[in-house]
Write a structure and sequence with these properties.
- The chain is α+β, with helices and mostly antiparallel strands.
- The protein has 13 helices and 18 strands.
- The chain folds into 2 domains: 208 residues, Creatine Amidinohydrolase, Chain A, domain 1, CATH 3.40.350.10; 227 residues, Creatinase/methionine aminopeptidase superfamily (Creatine Amidinohydrolase).
- It is 39% helix and 16% strand.
- The strands form 5 sheets. The chain has a 6-stranded mixed beta sheet, sandwiched between helices. Strands 13-14-17-18 form a 4-stranded antiparallel beta sheet, covered by helices on one side.
- It is elongated, with a radius of gyration of 24 Å.
Amino acid sequence: MIRTTTLLLVFTSIFSLQTAFSQTMWKYFSADDFNERRKRVMEKIGDGVAVLQGASMPEGYIKFRQDNNFYYLSGVETPDAVMIIDGKRKRSTLLVPDEVYNDIKPEARIKAGDSAAKEYKFDAVISKARFTGMLQGLTYRDAPVYISFTPEEMQEMCRDRSMQQNARRLNDPWDGRVSKETNFYNKLKERFPTLTIKNISPILDDMRWVKDDKEIAVIRECGRIGCLGIDEAIRVTRPGIYEYQTVAACDFVYNNNGASFPAYFPIAASGERGLDWHYNANNHILEEGTVLLIDYAPELNYYMTDITRTWPVSGKFTADQLKYYACLKEARAAIIAAMKPGVYLKELEDICKQVYEKHGYGSLYPGGIGHFVGMSVHDVGDYTKPFVKGTVFNVEPIIEDKAKKLHLRLEDTIVITATGAENLTPQSPVDEEAIYKLMKEKGVGEK
């Protein structure tokens, strides 16, 4: 009786621990959600087989973050894993390294076997040592093999930037390295020349472009945390402090509210430094009479938001700054009001330009109003297609006068609903009077 009770307690403890681990990993999702996505892939590839590689451990002491596509289909945060989705047999298999990494979070460590298969809702979880044999088996099937042709997306990474860097490296006469994805394609062709290889990326892009309610819930919470951080930066702003001190206020709030990573590097640009759109030195002293913009947001559970606010360092816009700001604020409101299913990006750009012209700043309209947001801050999506319910898009009107060395920007993350749009980052103020009031409050670390 004592032995039976002891064993029961042990099994109960193990089950409770596994449940706690799963809750930690999947606060917003379940293994069923990832499994349903794999089933959708099976439908789209027919008799084909999709082979996806997970991210590898980083070379430095950087916290591991899984590749977006791999996580999207698996919820797996084990480095160097591989996923095989068989459209014909309707089976999905996870292959994990025999080595168990110690410097990843405990709940992300997976050992091959039935227990892991049950927890992650795969048909099998096996040793990665069997990967070559499984690929060999595919050569006996007259079916295409789908792999990713596009760069993996990990911590603070976007496809557009990765593709640019891959091209630079490839064209560097003293480098010439191909990307991980190109290398995998080449090795498959070299070892299994009869394989028909296709690109899985368009299929996954189309799936990721439209967010479901659970994904939107994560982005909404991420936006709330992001706004709290920006508000704290507004509170601590005053002439004489450094730009990086306002970033520190954001970081405190982001970390204190459970954000996973920064969505991208912080941009805290005061004065003329705003003219450099991706300025990130953040090492200048805030000067009286200038404006400060912070473009900085967190990541939460593999989803991002993107926020920018611009405010006066001295506590109040000058009359000249306020004229530009009024145009920017109206453009932001007009764009968001027009967003709904069926609207094209070009229509929103025309609306934005009309506001600039109304204020006499038509020549200062820079073109473009934003980008898709999701698992990357510059997320996947087709800019030629009309918006649909579940599309998440960033509204980012910018106005700058280079002659006056003035740059102002407002940025919000918007989701398209069935009848219109919802601002997922509404908590941080845009109205100037609300900003002035917030600047009078004590910020973190202030007495």
